[in-house]
Amino acid sequence: MRVKEKVIKMIEELPEDITVSDIMAELYFRQNVDEGLKELDEGKGISHEEVKKRLTRWLK
Fold it and tell me: Among 21, 25, 27, which Cα is nearest to 7's?
């Protein structure tokens, strides 16, 4: 499915009373999720253990 088709399908599935700002936020969110999943598929992610280590350091 092409990007334009995906966006049209996404908009059609949203509630009727949605705002343009809400649509933009949803597009931004989905784009970032898609990019993250692509990075994981390419082996660019970090392990769960590494995330826990980093969070422990940040939260101190």
Answer: 27
Compute, in degrees rounded to 10, the torsion defined by CA atoms 4, 7, 8, 14. 180
And the tokens for 10? 């996404």
pLDDT, position 1: 82
pTM given for the model: 0.69
Give backbone dihedrals phi and psi of 43, rounded to 5 degrees, phi first.
75, 20
**Residue matched to tokens 């705002």:** 19
Task: Tell me how far apart the alpha carbons of residues 37 and 34 are, in angstroms, rounded to a whole number.
Answer: 5
Cα–Cα distance between 60 and 57 in angstroms, integer?
6
